[in-house]
User: What shape does this take?
Amino acid sequence: MAMKLDQVSPNLLEVNNLVKYFPIKGSWFGKPKHYVRAVDGVSFFIRRGETLGLVGESGCGKTTTGRTILRLHEPTGGQIIFDGTDLRKLRSEELRKKRKDLGIIFQDPYSSLNPRMTVGDIIGEGLLVQGLTNVRERTERVHAMLEEVGLAPYHYRRFPHEFSGGQRQRIGIARSVIYSPKLIVCDEPVSALDVSIQSQILNLLKDLQKKRDLAYLFIAHNLSVVKHISDRVGVMYLGKLVELTTSKNLYAQPTHPYTQALLSAIPHADPDMRMDRQRLKGDVPSPVNPPSGCRFHTRCPIAVEQCKVDEPVWREIRTDHFVACHLAK
Ligand code: SF4
Assistant: This one.
């Protein structure tokens, strides 16, 4: 029986307490002695057609979160409810079928495309895997997709090395979008590109989202990039979310000291928009042995004694504004 419209959850993805630990083995055959706690209890949702930005310094676990949601890494714990199905419970054949609703765009448009394959074969591969064996139909779909991402049908027979960085990223986007997924994990899709090209690619992603009702998990280390594409933004530090709110709230009222420090590092041409630069002391601690209490306490400029002992609770301090900090108001 068809599902009534009012029964469809507005949330396309719900991630509950996601954990991903990578074992560090002492020897080839020995048991792991330690674990890299790359993602350590992360929860959020993404609505249909929405963009959630995920930011943080390198090593904070944002890329691992994206890949674990797609089960490119096996989760250590938690739930990944996608379109009403717990992805963790799917066996390989069921997961393969579900994958047509999930896509990924990689950071590096140079290494993510097979140099021996033509552009047509790269983009059409996903359709073939999904069972579209009719060559003519597949070719037509690829031609149309090339035009949709701003390339031309005659690019079909060319090879990746014949394209610029921005064009290669368009090919990567076409490869992900052609089989009409519902959610795409965009893993730093513009960070390897020139600034002048970045906005073109962001505009393309926005256009495709509008036309195809796509949802994005948009991963970036640069808060200014995320601002222009995200409806809401989550900030990660050492495997945990520390703040999550609407894009507008995050930039107008950053509340967690880590978010404030990241925002203060963004250069602004407008002097009214400039914040006093807050330099964080020290390096990001090791995710193998994260600090006790609040993981940020070793670098936090306003830490108090309690921060060394008690882990802050993830709480909603204003409507749609979640923070994990003892002192947040
Ligand atoms: Fe800083 Fe303490 Fe808040 Fe952590 S809980 S961000 S250490 S004030």
Observations:
- Residues 11-230 form a domain with the Rossmann fold fold (CATH 3.40.50.300).
- The first strand starts at residue 11 and ends at 25.
- Residues 256-257, 294, 296-297, 300, 302-303, 307, 312, 325-327 surround iron/sulfur cluster (CB under 6 Å).
